[in-house]
Design brief:
Elements (H helix, E strand, L loop, with lengths): L2 H5 L4 H12 L7 H13 L4 E5 L5 H9 L5 E6 L2 H13 L7 E5 L2 H4 L8 E6 L6 H11 E10 L15 H15 L3 E6 L5 E6 L1
Parallel strand pairs: 1-2, 1-4, 2-3, 4-5
Antiparallel strand pairs: 5-7, 6-7
Amino acid sequence: MPFAETYAAEDPILQTARSLAHELGLPCISPGAGSVLCLLAAAGNAKAVVEIGTGTGVSGIWLLRGMRPDGVLTTIDVEHEHQRIARRVFVEAGFAPGRTRIISGRSLDVLPRLADGAYDLIFVDADTTEFAACTEAALRLLRPGGVLIVNGVHAGGRINDPAARDVDTLTIRETVKAIRESEDWTPAVISSGAGLLAAVKR
């Protein structure tokens, strides 16, 4: 296991959330990737964060631990049952119910209802089919200097393989290329976990 993953120690609450995700067959971010989320939330003194893909709360805990003590995490997921678990996990991790706004629904239905320029950080851990729409929404939702983070940009190790022409890999390639070539973003790829694309809104 890479040093970045073993360096990011997880406490029993995170371990529980991770094992619940495993039981449900849900992928979740690695400890190394989680520590990057925590770092970026802390570096930006994030008060308002959007997470697309609640899961069982693993990434949410990492984000909340980096955010300001008065920060609110808005987390969106289509699976109500997963969010019920995440709500319990957040409370067990010591976060007051007011620190999270848990919204059930498709991200593409929910994001248009969120306020322009109101957010410090947006974490996209959604289906690759929604990457383009989510990154487009992020440009509207983030304040200047806000950070977009997209999970899974290594495409399971296929991102650099020219023979990989499956829909997911092609979609990820298009997303990372569009952000790299856009004048709206200052991006970098961080190789923790499944690969994180981080970009600061100019």
